[in-house]
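Appendix B, record 7
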Amino acid sequence: MRTYFSERHRLHFPQAELFGGQFVTPFERPSRVEYILNRLGERGFAKPVDPGPVDLAPVQRIHDAGFLAFLQSAWEEWKAAGFSGEVMPASYPARRMQARCPNHIDGKVGYYALALETAMTSGTWEAALSSCASAQAAQRAVAAGERAAFALCRPPGHHAASDMYGGYCFLNNVAIAAEMFRQNGAARVAVLDVDFHHGNGTQDIFYERGDVFFASLHGQPEDAFPYFLGYADETGAGDGEGATANYPMAPGTPYSVWCEALDDAIARIRGFGAEALVVSLGVDAFKDDPISFFKLQSDDFTDCGRRIEKLGLPTLFCMEGGYAIEAVGINTVNVLEGFLGA
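Structure tokens (predicted):
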């Protein structure tokens, strides 16, 4: 299994995240990638391949044009307004307010943000593009006949909606890759999100589409970010009715319960008739993750990979979350090795 990865991810490294009422070093940081790269090398995986430039055409099919223009210009507009810190929202269009995009950058940030923990820096846009390029390169490899590929994406993507960023995400890598599979001729594609946090952005993008099935295993929204999406009764709308499956689970959920949800999601994907699979590979369901509350052990991730392989589909893994830094490499590679039968 080839890994696609760009060193340009390092251009995105905000110095602060608002957590628990104080500013802390972001949980989503460049060192996460180093642990994964080191583990890949230790386990004999081939050296990662640079993805090359991003193809903006599929990005533009998934994301709103105004949103993309905002991401590209936000840093320069922020500085031109006289702000000295990193780009962070200060206000939002809350209930009963107008959802109109302001002209001033301070208002634009709040309009396009879905959470205020995610800051932007001078290199965020380029890093997001490089992350997306990794997903695209991996998708092309699978579409060309590879059994599976791993896109070591950073920043992650599954919280990014068609016109919103947050949860450390700017471009929705898995949605873009799924759309590329569709454009390459796959009649139906599935996205399986095993990250602890609900893939709200991916759900938002495909909610009214019947050609992409979305399944997410996550902490119940009553207790876990992103809080306002991911309930079990969200099953799709219009042409997409029945093509969304949410598996919200309670604090302390062990693998014995979690894997039942995984098996059900796999059965739903099989019944859907998917011709390709994109996996949002977050490993923050791990028992020691600092911002999650499931109880998976490292060995459980290996079994997770084995179960996903039983679908027998061309499979693209895109990296999402996982913030127990010293274990993130082990847990990520365990999924890949489980899938490969190693």
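Remarks on this record: The mean pLDDT is 97. Residues 16 and 190 are 35 Å apart (CA to CA).
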